[in-house]
Automatic annotation (TrEMBL):
Pfam families in UniProt: DJ-1_PfpI
CDD domains associated with the record: GATase1_PfpI_2 (cd03139)
Protein name: DJ-1/PfpI family protein
Classification via Gene3D superfamilies: 3.40.50.880
Sequence intervals crossing the membrane: none
SUPFAM superfamilies cross-referenced by the UniProt entry: Class I glutamine amidotransferase-like
Domain of life of the source: Bacteria
Stretches assigned to the DJ-1/PfpI domain: 2-162
InterPro entries reported for this sequence: Class_I_gatase-like, DJ-1/PfpI, INH-QAR
Region (Disordered): 208-227
Species this protein is from: Streptomyces gobitricini
Length: 227
């Protein structure tokens, strides 16, 4: 079973690494990181790189396709080479999956037309523009298409997928061995639970990270004045 994780400049690290830690442990799995060119590919903050060990052309027919998200998806959804690879890989894949705004990339390739899908909560309206039927659920299965919401939900998706492929016992074992037992200090992990002012801040200025003492800093470190 070959699992291909797509890499491209500006991908979100946990979108790729979170599910990788789970699905790479499927029985008989061969997991490859694939990009247009082999070598290091930098994340959305530019401070960490994963190594693509295969080109897209070298991975034409993976069993599982995983597309991580990004805060700047415009270059990717205009990249016909990447979209063509996704269409080709999807033609024979058993599962085609995404995390966060990776679903926008799948949708831009025409793979989610009329399908229920999820994405980061700030990108659900964008997902609808590309023909998908957006839902705020954390993990969504529609046939062989599996989409996960924002960043951390990729781990959940990985466990769901392992359960479908290898059975509940295998998925439960992986959850136990990775000690995936979230106990966050705040109950603010969705727009329905987070304080209204925090949600409003992000709706008004998506893509900017509050930086204590400096104002707001975008994901590449550029500082803008505090509001």
């Amino acid at each position: 079973m070959q699992i291909a994780i797509l890499l491209y400049p500006g991908f979100t690290t946990l979108d790729a690494v979170g599910p990788f830690e789970i699905i790479s442990r499927l029985p008989g799995a061969e997991t490859v990181f694939a990009a247009k060119e082999t070598g290091p590919v930098r994340n959305d903050q530019g401070n960490l790189a994963l190594v693509a060990d295969r080109t897209l052309a070298e991975v034409p027919g993976p069993d599982i396709v995983l597309v991580p998200g990004t805060d700047d998806w415009a270059p990717v959804i205009r990249d016909e080479e990447t979209l063509d690879w996704l269409r080709t890989a999807d033609a024979t894949s058993t599962w085609t999956t995404s995390v966060c705004t990776g679903s926008l990339i799948l949708a831009a390739a025409g793979l989610l037309d009329g399908r229920r899908a999820t994405s980061h909560w700030l990108a659900l309206d964008e997902l609808k523009k590309y023909g998908a039927d957006p839902t705020g659920e954390r993990v969504v299965f529609d046939g062989k298409y599996v989409t996960a919401a924002g960043v951390s939900s990729g781990i959940d998706m990985g466990l769901h997928l392992v359960g479908r492929i290898a059975g509940d016992r295998h998925a439960q074992s992986l959850q136990l061995l990775t000690e995936y037992d979230p106990q966050p200090p705040y109950d603010a992990g969705s727009p329905e639970k987070a304080p209204a002012e925090v949600v409003a801040f992000w709706r008004a200025g998506a893509g900017r990270v509050p930086d204590a003492g400096q104002g707001a800093r975008d994901v590449r470190g550029n500082v803008t004045p505090r509001r």
